[in-house]
Amino acid sequence: MGRAPCCDKANVKKGPWSPEEDAKLKEYIEKYGTGGNWIAFPQKAGLRRCGKSCRLRWLNYLRPNIKHGEFSDEEDRIICNLFTNIGSRWSIIAAQLPGRTDNDIKNYWNTKLKKKLMGISILPSQLLKSHPSLLLQTSSTSSSPLSYRGSNSSTTFYTQTRSFTGTLEPISFSQSLMSSSSINSAPSALQIPQESVVGRHMQQQHYQVKDNILMFGGEASCSSSDGSCSNHQITEREYEYGGAYGGRNGGATNGEVKLQMGLQNYNFFNGVGGEQKIMQNNSSGNRMWEDQAGLDYGLEEIKQLISSTGSCNNFLFDENKTEEKVMMYY
DNA sequence: AATTCATGCAACCGCGCATTG
DNA sequence: TCAATGCGCGGTTGCATGAAT
Asked: What's the CATH architecture for A73-116?
């Protein structure tokens, strides 16, 4: 035996609210308040709606000072931080963001912010599966997809920070490249965000390794918000896999991806709880990317992904928008 | 131009908690 | 103490819209 319904389902209207209903609701509340009883509210206000529906409409859209539209970087940062600490307690998170509703934040998280995080560790193979039109193009003599060249000298990692779809906006990706989880799981782990390899607006980034510290950012760093250039460099040993991730707009030049690390096994795409790619030698001595798991991110994993950097502020967003620098031990 | 697909968002639903009698 | 009731929250759904094919 379930609980009694909160209202007469047969006699209440469902679906989108009309302007007339909105006006009625707003007018009544401005005159008399909510009356402290949402269940009884519709009858008093002359609305054929469920009380819960009235409450939701008022709280999320009609009450004063509701803020709609784009979330600022600061708001992103707060959401990210709070999610790391308390999880999906949207009402609490909303309490920290004046004018924002829990529903708004929840939707924003589910549709955009989470994707940004997931984009950080999505894999090239995954991209190619879902975007076969993205032909691989090697930047050198190699013709095989995801191939790379190695050398013993300095390393350059060229990539881009723009998304390849409109939903993956750049979010200081250079800072988010690495997570401690990937670091912990294997030496020299490096995550390449989705937007790092496919995009319509190409950029170069270099990652530096100095004294076993991978350094992101620096003088040539780019701002995440404007998509300007960021340069990072990795020294020690160079491997390069030609990225044909340029897509229809980018082509060979834009899609070039170079990457180098100094170890034999490279756990570049170690998504937290998701698919891993490990570059390793095969029997014929060629290095290959190996799928390790499916790409399935849960909230816990995303939380780990966030928290693994120690601070969400450091993870996603640049405090001062002028320099991005992340140092990691490998 | 038509169709399909992807995305974002408003709204709904069910459950747990708090309050009240 | 306990049952009834209402509130609030988080997860999910469905629709509208725009992009891609």
From this structure: Orthogonal Bundle (1.10)
